[in-house]
Every structure is written in structure tokens, then in C-alpha cells.
Amino acid sequence: MEHVIAVNEGKVPPDDNTTILKDSYRLYQLKHNLIDLRRHQYYLKDAYKPTLHFQAIDHPKAQFYDWTCDSFYWIPLTEWQHRVDEALLHTVSKDLENYETRINERGETEVKWVVREHTFDWENPLHVKALINNYDALYDYLKEKLNTYGRTLIFDFERYRAMANLTEVREFILDKKIEKMPYADIVQSLQLKYGLKYNENHLCTILAKEIPEKIALAAKKHRMLIDTPADQCKKCHTCGRLLPRDPIFYVRNRSRKDGFSSNCKECEKLRRIEKGGQSVHDKRSKESPMY
Length: 291
Description:
Elements: H1 2-8, H2 24-48, E1 71-76, H3 77-86, E2 101-103, E3 109-116, H4 125-133, H5 135-142, H6 149-164, H7 168-178, H8 183-194, H9 200-227, E4 233-235, E5 242-244, E6 250-252, E7 260-264, H10 265-274
Antiparallel strand pairs: 1-3, 2-3, 4-5, 6-7
Helix pairs in contact: 2-4, 4-9, 6-9, 7-8, 7-9
């Protein structure tokens, strides 16, 4: 894609295998598609943090992705001393005991320099989306490694998925996505099982945006329930739960003294379902055919 753009912009001589775009808007779209692909590459790397390989060090021809280790490389003791002396961040420890060391084949001491500690942000829908897309491979890779951080991702995913309280249809779609079922087959299964006529674009939106956002929101709610003091919470009039006084849990209502409705959002949703305003299978009461 980079090469096609470069040829059409005159930066690279044309060749027989490269398409010449006559429409300037098509070139504009291609540039933005390339930016979007690079952005998603970053999201995947940000979520899984593969081990980094550097040109100064021998590395395999094929990139190996380790989902359970921090990104690091080994540096000489003198180089480590220089880096910690010049470090401006307070988080960089200057005590050698806080670093892993080894003796290389030349008998020299080397220090393990961590480039980045691996973190997964459950409140970021893009991280959740990346996990869903790679769940099957991640599970197979870590199913025997029960005490790893990567395996914890699997446990947490199932926990937050349950907290998200997805509808039956969304659970079905998510299961089929994890099973790597093609979109066309999922669309057909939805019509046979639920009588719903989705197209593949709608299905892609559900898997790429709606479901990850719901799981990320469930993770955020869970954190807020733990972190919010009792005096900053409000008791739901219907279910009686003590929930944080926040728009995530309550609908805003200016007529109320505290600015929020007396019932939490979940109870309001159940009330709408009971009145027929929302289907128990889907987020809309009536599904219109989509082609």
C-alpha cells in the first residue's frame, strides 16, 4: 500500500505491477486506510507487547511474539550505569539489586533493561477488541500456563464478559467470533436461530465496537464500585444496591436534588423490557431486515 501511494505521488518510478489511480479521492482514501492499519498495529502491540528484537543483537528471521514476558534486552553494566545516571524519571531505580543480571559468554556482567512492562487496559475497548480477535490463539498458547499474566487475561475476560450482561444474541455472536466462524455463516446462523436479518457490516460493527465497549464499560464499573467511597454512592430505589453517584450508573435528572434519577440504569432497562420497549434478545424491540 505504501508503494502504491509513493508511485501515485511521483516519489517512486512506476512499474508494471502497480496500479495508477486516476481518482485523487481514491488516493486520499488509500492514505487514510494505511494510517488506520498502522494505528491498529499499534493497538495490537500495545495490548500484547511482543518481545522486541534489535538489530545489534542476533534475532530470528521470523518475529516471535511472547505474550507472557516484558519487552527487554540485555545491556553491559557500564551502559546500565550511564542510563540510570542520566535518567530523568523518578521511576527508574538506581539500585542494581532491583535489576536482573547475568554473566555472558565473555564473562561480562549484563543487566536486563526492560523497555516496557506489559499492561492490559480493560477499560480500553480497543484492547478488548484485540483480545477478542486473538482469544482462540491466546487460549491455546496459555492453556497449560495457569500461573502466567497472560492466563489471567483469559480469566478476567470471562469475568468481565459475565458482568457486561450481554444479550443472548450478542453472546451468540461473540461465541461464534471466538470460534473463528466466518461472518457470512454467523449471519446465516442468526437468521435460522433468532429470525434476525443482519448484514456483515452490521455484524462487524457489533464485534468491533458494541461488544468491546460493553465489556470495557463493565470493567470500568467494577473498578468504580471498588474505588468509590460509600458517601459518594447512591442507593437504587428498585434494586437497593449502593452504586456510585455517576452517569455510568444513573441517568441524569435535574429535577432531583443530587441530579440523578432514583433508579439505576440497569433497573430502568429491565423496566423498559417489561413494557415491551426493548427486546430481551436484542437492543431493539423490532428488527427490520437489513441488506
